[in-house]
Amino acid sequence: MISTQLIIYCINPACNSPINPMGDSVCASCQTPLVHRYLWATGSLSAQIPPGTKVADRYEVISPQIWLDTQPGLSPDAPEELPKEVIPYLRLYQERLHLPQAYGFASYLEGDTSDILLLENVPINETGNIYPTIVEAWQQATAVRQVYWLWQILQLWTPLSELGLSGSLVVVDNLRVQGWCVRLLELYQTPADEKLSLQNLGQCWQFWVASAKASVAKGLQKIVQQMCETEVELEAINIQLNNLLLASAAELPLVLKVVGSTDIGPLMAQNEDACYPNTLSDLDEPLLPQLSIVCDGISGHEGGEVASKLAVQSVKLQIRALLTEVTEQTVLVPPELLQEQLEASLRVINNVICARNNEQKRQGRERMATTIVMALQVPQRVQTSTGWQSNNTHELYLANVGDSRAYWITRNYCQLLTVDDDVTTREVRFAKSLYRKALLRPDASALTQALGTRDAESLRLKVQRFIVEEDGILLLCSDGLSDNNCVEQSWQDYAKPVLTGQLTVEDAVRNWINLANEKNGRDNTSVVLTYCRVSPEYLVPVTPALPEEIIEAKIQEQEELQEAISFTESSRSLLDLDLNLDLDLDLPEEPLITPEIPPTLITKPNRGKRLVMLGGVLALLVGGTSLGLFAWWQFNPQGFQQMCRQLPQRGQQLCLLGK
Asked: Distance (Å, rounded) from C-alpha 55 to C-alpha 532?
């Protein structure tokens, strides 16, 4: 409970005016929205500090270990040499969806040498109340959500175990849930002489599983029994839990509607963004509603608009082939394999843009590049626990490079799903700085990687897998919208009306773009919304997916065009991509924006390894037919030679054999 006497200062450092949180939602001086930044104070000392105490003349103790920063515009205190206890939080920054991050330190008493570590991004809501534990929420959860929570914990087991933190996953009070998402309050170091195993995790789970929903209880009990009684491998448990998760999710209905649009903005002369779908062109596409993409050609890079369009077209070609192969499978494709395939696709697309740069002899800031955030809903056939066959397992795969973002929004919360590839993230992930301190760097928002600036070996990729098991909106956007926390501050006004049936998805997209032009008008903006409905009621008009026979006919038509040339599916995909290098896209003669970011900050530093075209290209050269390689060479000899020069000696020999 916030005291009526409490004053919070404006987060804008140039203003720092006092705000009464009981009556004002914005700063009267500069109109900056009021920020309630709740923190978790770690350690036994903080648990003894009574509510109402003001710590370090800054932090208001709201309840035991829950503090409110009354001066969020000021950088929190942190020592020059970071203590060992804070390093794991930094190393695991990529898992910020589930884990808290280090905020700063505070001394309770003057001269006290034992500072209290404060954590942000914690499972505390906007009113300062902590989210429930899994135990507290278990009985009310659906069957699929119960399995989904356990699956998330299992995915965290390896990264936490590698840092000696697996004990964090067996402390029941530490495991909190925000809807579908498992979130940890803090990280606990496992004693050096105490090595935890899956048996310990199984023993923790068995009490919950005893009261699991009937449709998944038997399957969960079997899995937990193996964990408790045998030395079972993590992979075996992962497979069984995943199969149960997909089978339970498939019993839910799933209807998707995807709408996207891109806008040049009020001040820009050129739109370097591209998206899929785009209301101006993609009206009847076979990939809808499974695929959504946003790309942002990097400002200051000549040809950024070409790179973004090239990336979108290339992704569509790759995904069309991938979905065709998935639908032909008679067994479930494991998430690890689909993640590898999507990573490989991004590396291929990166090299397509690189090849265009090299063909045109672009150097330094002249090289075109793009960010990307993409989501793919993969429909797989699975037999449900009730015995009937379903055509959709509700899997959603998400990948991003650069600072284009993805958010999941429901009636109750807005969750940022992606992590930006910028200098701030790099400094935190390498344990060089706390997040808030890294934000103060003049180059904090400079990108550390993007598609097309370097060869694929330099890319650090992470593809995430989610299960759609509640009504919600997946928002993909470029930084034209996400800058200045615009989404976090406005989601309730712009997304909730869609979920309550008061606004169409099309109107919501237009409203988001109008907001971006008003708040962040110095950039292009792209927005793609996917409305996901699993509840039976129809809240908004939703367009179902195209009939399967139409999709198959379009795919068949594409295959017939290439029937004269016999190559493997992978060969066809790569040929399509390379032919796409000759898209009819006009390149500007002069850069439209003066580059301000040094080229060394655009990509991740080269690790010194030679590029072997990832995603199976070398395998293509080894296993593909000579006719396939010959066709590629005939259609685009320059592109073929360019690719060969990027391969090691063995690959170059195979290129010559292909010719």
From this structure: 44
Note whether 169 and 179 are within 8 A (CB). Answer: no
What percent of the chain lies above the pLDDT cut of 70?
Answer: 78
CA distances from 615 to 343, 358, 380, 608, 649 (A): 7, 21, 22, 19, 18
Residue 30: what residue type? Answer: C
Structure-block tokens of residue 506: 């099309």
Q: From CA 92, how far away is CA 89, in angstroms rounded?
A: 5
Helix, strand or coil, per DSSP, at residue 234? helix
Nearest to 447 by CA among 567, 318, 602, 256: 602
Residue 198 structure tokens: 């899956």
Does pLDDT of 450 surpass 50? yes
Angle, helix 335-359 to helix 637-646, in steps of 10 degrees? 110
DSSP H helices in 562-636? 569-579, 617-623, 626-635
Q: What is the mean pLDDT of the chain?
A: 82
> Does 558 have pLDDT greater than 90?
no
What value does the mean pLDDT take over residues 109-122? 84
Q: How confident is the model at residue 109 (pLDDT cuts 50, 70, 90)?
A: confident
pLDDT of 361? 86
* 350, 451 contact by CB (below 8 A): yes
State mean pLDDT over 330-347: 95
Taking the CA atoms of the chain, what radius of gyration do you get in angstroms?
A: 26
* CA gap 586, 589 in Å, rounded: 9
CA distances 442 to 11, 15, 104, 432, 603, Å, are: 18, 20, 20, 16, 17
* Burial track 471-490 (b if 16+ CB lie within 10 A, e otherwise): bbbbbbbbbbbbbeebbebb
Residues 6 or more apart whose CB falls under 8 angstroms from that of 44 comprise none
Cβ atoms within 10 A of the Cβ of 95, count? 17
pLDDT reported for residue 23: 62
pTM comes to: 0.82
3-state secondary structure of 178: strand
